[in-house]
Request: fold
Amino acid sequence: MDRRSFLRTAGAAAIAGAAAPALSSCIGESGTIDGNLIKDSYETDLLVVGGGPSGVCAAVAAARSGVKVLLADSGNCLGGMGTKGLVGPFMTCYDAAGERMIIRGLFEEIVDRLVAAGAAIHPSKIRQGTEFTAWIKEGHDHCTPFDPEELKKVYDRICAEAGVKVLFHSVFAYPVMKGRRITGAVLLTPSGFERVKARMVIDATGDGTVAYRAGAPCVFGDPENGRVQPASLFFRINNVDTDRLIADVVPHLPEFRRVNGVSYRCLHWRVAEAEANGEWDLARKSVNIWRSVEKDQWVINCTRIHGVDATNAESLTAAEVEGRRQVEELMNFFHKYVPGCEKATLMGTGSTMGVRESRHVHGDFVLPVSDLIEGVVPDDNILLSANSIDVHGAMGGPAGGLYMPIKKNLYGIPYRCLIPRDVEGLLLAGRCISADSPAAGAIRVMPPAMAIGQAAGTAAALCLKNGASPAALDYQELRRALLAQKVCLDA
Reply:
């Protein structure tokens, strides 16, 4: 079986497994593990599972509101895709007109800290159609280049200052349930199985793992076509003669185009050369290459692996291996075909695959993509955003995608999308919130994910203080708290 067939088979099998009736599975309070092997280690007001951008913001917002917070992550640093995944830059935080910064709050604070450390360029200084946006215009105005190593330290500091207890190397095993209410979780740590007792839990896993195992209804990918967006392994290079690279790209800018969902953008003329010589085997026709903070450093988003189930170890393993193979092919391409990159050095690949889509947890309200396109700002709004709908692989072909700019200047996200069905005491944060697949294609990127996390953490703190369930929380109280945190809520 060849490489592509293997990946398709692994992905299809994994998707079939994820869509089975086990979506409603959960484990009761006693669990299936011998209780003597589980140590009661922690008791907290709020447990946040997942230390990515959304989870960090949820934990910090809740802790600053005065509740005791434990943030558990399976890795060795905070930041998720932005640090472990090397995904960059932060996508736009401005309205569609590029005139107003509308994602602020904790996101803006984190950016300001990076800028002060010389590790980011403020989005106000980055305009569309430049090397900092991979020369892309639509939906790419005011991106934020940043250094992932400094971002790790910023996240460490902001959590420590807020009083968040961070626990690395802690894999979520299963929820502790009392009826339909989640009362904590069992984590697998280097010490063994450890139980966390919590009054509330936030699922910031990205894959909706907590909600899924607690019994919340979920769908995998897009049920309309049975697909998930392809995954990518990001990587960074340096020792680039940036002036020569730019000089090669700029004359070709008038040729940038999209044909049947396929983008012919940066370096598509070099890709055509390599393809003609039998030295290009990637499901792309161009290279998304983003200049970083240091002049000779660039972030590459070009690898593409279809049919990856991020909830299945075998599928992820195959994808990680294939991602590194594609990076090797790309480095050969840069050295041989791209002016200014002859001596480029591979700084590193992401330590985890960049996953765009897996489970979508369903709440009583599922955010439809039409609300984003039409610029709906709901009555229970928790953030403003203007990120375009970007669904990789939507056309079904190896390189095709669906890209839809919004019709209005911005849209909002309802608080209702953070509340899963059939589970009490749980809130959602990040890309697993209750939204249809195309809508998730817009809000999965880091700035809105961070704003979602801030709203979830603030809501959890209010629920804990008032003794209210997430569904019964007074939205006006949440609104006042978010406005006090410099969150933009009004169009």
The first strand starts at residue 38 and ends at 49. Residues 58 and 454 are 5 Å apart (CA to CA).
